[in-house]
């Protein structure tokens, strides 16, 4: 068995049927988790359900002592097992057959191995989402059969285990192994659609990527971010990311015109400076952020701007528009420039 490390990937894809064709149903969209075999310098993709499992997936890649991980029903289950003299010794990801084309929520299961001091406990079979989350709260290793890794894993020659699996538009940080490093904004007039822009966000409970409750598009030299349901969960951002080196120790200003329709929550310009990206969590440390909120309701095109300091340790700058709640927000004439000295943040 190969012991693997769980790495979040900032990518959601449409669902796939068993023949590999896409299924146009947001409720079946899939979130990419990378199973990294560091000892073997290889990694395999695992596609899990993005909708309906946010609370479970939010525990992956975090240490067992994390306050959010060590609370709730999963942690209670792990404590009950320990009280009964049984512990989760490992969680094995096993495919349904030897010829599955890829590791996916509907082609694999998780077998929870239980260890007891006085007796052998039979393994318990659960979903991949639940098994990986239980491994996180129990601090147990996750394993994959060597034969499966031999067949489905790809080589990882460097440290970036996400590079083989992410399309260029989803690259984090901006650039990376085998990709152009971006230091300046691109496609600010949206003449190339949403190239260099990405839809991301957080649900209120656990910080998953933006899902079916929000959508984005580009047309007529503007971009739109909109809720797709009357009561969307959490928030979403349509953002672009660049390296921060050229702006460190100074401040940047992001400005643009906004038009809104039917806003009932928070929305506006979004600007943030963040630190390096730890592979263990897939989440950057936020070093500074700001926003220029739009008023509730609807409004015609109006100029907005926001300024944020870029600390010396910043790795990336992310800028765009945000939306939390019902409604629609549009952006045009976007600009990111160094802020003049003395500009208030």
Brief write-up:
The chain is mainly β and 345 residues long. 10% of the residues lie in helices and 44% in strands. It starts with a strand and ends in a 7-residue tail after the last strand.
Question: Any overview of this molecule?
Answer:
- With 345 residues, this protein is mainly beta.
- It has helices at residues 54-57, 73-83, 128-138, 146-152, and strands at residues 2-13, 15-16, 22-23, 30-37, 42-49, 86-95, 103-104, 108-116, 124-126, 142-144, 154-155, 198-202, 214-219, 222-227, 235-243, 250-263, 266-274, 286-293, 297-310, 316-324, 328-338.
- The strands form four sheets. Strands 1, 4, 5, 6, 7, 8, 9, 10 and 11 form a nine-stranded mixed beta sheet that branches. Strands 12-15-20-17-18 form a five-stranded antiparallel beta sheet, with no helix packed on it. A five-stranded antiparallel beta sheet has the order 13-14-21-16-19, with no helix packed on it.
Largest sheet, described in full? 9 strands, mixed
Low-confidence regions:
61-71, 168-180, 203-210, 279-283
**Run of helices and strands:** EEEEEHHEEEEHEHEEEEEEEEEEE
Strand share of the residues? 35-45%
Q: Determine the N-to-C terminus distance.
A: 53 Å
List how many beta strands DSSP finds: 21
Structural class estimated from helices and strands = mainly beta
Please compute the radius of gyration using only Cα atoms.
Answer: 22 Å
Query: Number of helical runs?
Result: 4
- Average of per-residue pLDDT values: 77
Q: How much helix is in the residues? A: under 10%
Shape verdict: elongated
């Amino acid at each position: 068995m190969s012991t693997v490390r769980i790495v979040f990937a900032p990518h959601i894809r449409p669902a796939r049927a068993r023949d590999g064709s896409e299924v146009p149903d947001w409720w079946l969209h899939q979130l990419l988790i990378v199973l990294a075999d560091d000892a073997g310098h290889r990694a395999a993709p695992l596609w899990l359900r993005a909708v309906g499992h946010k609370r479970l997936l939010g525990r992956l890649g975090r240490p067992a002592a994390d306050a959010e991980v060590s609370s709730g029903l999963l942690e209670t289950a792990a404590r009950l097992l320990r009280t009964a003299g049984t512990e989760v010794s490992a969680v094995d990801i096993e495919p349904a057959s030897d010829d599955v084309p890829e590791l996916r929520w509907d082609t694999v299961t998780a077998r929870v191995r239980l260890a007891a001091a006085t007796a052998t406990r039979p393994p318990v079979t659960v979903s991949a989402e639940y098994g990986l989350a239980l491994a996180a709260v129990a601090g147990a290793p996750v394993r994959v059969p060597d034969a499966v890794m031999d067949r489905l894993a790809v080589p990882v020659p460097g440290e970036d285990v996400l590079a083989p699996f992410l399309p260029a538009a989803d690259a984090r940080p901006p650039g990376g192994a085998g990709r152009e490093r971006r230091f300046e904004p691109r496609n600010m007039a949206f003449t190339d659609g949403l190239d260099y822009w990405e839809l991301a966000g957080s649900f209120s409970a656990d910080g998953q990527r933006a899902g079916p409750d929000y959508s984005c598009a580009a047309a007529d030299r503007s971009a739109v971010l909109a809720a797709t349901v009357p009561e969307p969960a959490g928030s979403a951002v349509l953002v672009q990311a660049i390296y921060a080196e050229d702006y460190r120790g100074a401040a940047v200003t992001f400005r643009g015109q906004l038009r809104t329709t039917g806003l009932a929550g928070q929305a506006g310009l979004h600007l943030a400076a963040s630190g390096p990206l730890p592979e263990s969590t897939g989440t950057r440390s936020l070093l500074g952020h700001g926003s220029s909120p739009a008023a509730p309701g609807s409004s015609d095109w109006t100029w907005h701007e926001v300024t944020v300091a870029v600390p010396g340790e910043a790795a990336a700058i992310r800028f765009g528009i945000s939306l939390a709640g019902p409604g629609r927000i549009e952006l045009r004439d976007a600009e990111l420039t160094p802020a003049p000295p003395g500009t208030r943040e």
